[in-house]
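Appendix B. One record, verbatim.
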Amino acid sequence: MRHGRVRPAMGKSTPSQLLGTGSVQPSSDMPNTSLDSTRAFTLADFDFALPPELIAQHPAPERSGSRLLDGTGPAPVDRIFNTLPGLLQPGDLLVFNDTQVIKARLFGEKASGGKVELLVERVLPDTGVGAGRINEVVAHMKVSKKPLPGATLYMAGGSRGGFSAKLLGRWPDEHGALFRFQFSGEPHALMEKHGHVPLPPYITHTDTLEDAQRYQTVFAKHPGAVAAPTAALHFDEALLAQLDARGVRRASVTLHVGAGTFQPVKTERLADHTMHSEWYAVPEATQQAIADCRARGGRVVAVGTTTVRTLESWARTCTGADLAGGQPTGDTAIFITPGFDFKVVDVLVTNFHLPKSTLMMLVSAFAGYDPVMALYAHAIAQKYRFFSYGDAMLLTRASAQPHDNPHHAEI
């Protein structure tokens, strides 16, 4: 098998194009590594071979009925996701990403009749009449021949019940890989009416009503993502009620996941990779919830890598160990690799990720490279389901005592 190019959710690729060429040996051992900060990692270290049949094409019948690989102990334990409340402690704080996936994939044609596909990456803020950003979006464009700035695209039938999109230029500058368009109406309303669920490139079917319902969390609140925060897809109302009864607290952040989340790293030296940028927000109530969690000796449990990126990005704008005075909103291009100094997150709930991806590097940084590779080997041997609609795992941060808290609770 070969590792092919993963395009950022533009069109579909066959599963065999998305698999790695590396190998990991199945193991029941969970080695504890303390040398990741001094080890020189390369791209090849994060490659692994995955049988195509393990790529989940559809969600589990029930959200919380997925499998959960418990990687918090000395050996991996196979569980069901609905057992998560028993693995957490009263006083722990679960932090979710409450972004809402938008129907960002749009189909249309040029004036010449040539077919075009847009994947809206973000809706630009409306800065008022005359400011030049009314109904503007930034998008990936898939077309046989790129139109010139000023050209009008006719989306979803154009004058026959659709809308038009005027190409304004590239973004964020004239050399940017994305394109800036002005829609003939309010972007979110047009996408909701005419758009398609932006399924990941490794899911081979066109979007259906099931995808509209299941490629969305039960607590999605703020529209703007073109990919789901997939670890949170396993939570349903019954499981949330069990967590509440257990005394586990909840809080939310927002990170609008971009299509760049599917892109593999292509540079052998990790430092040469250019990370994609995403918008995030950490509400004041969540900042206070984190402070309260620390004060009572609980753990901050991030649901998904997008929540990790949000919290750790925010923490790097704070002053001092008490995480005060941070920037509550902004854009982040944080690239978390082994040796990263985590300041907020103690426990991570996450799905299984693509070979050579930045997310493989993030989870390896969090739980240790060798333990993560052993867990992936176990998951493959036990035929776990991989990627967005797949199963999940539970990880603890590699350092023994998060935040040097002597009252820190243990699983």
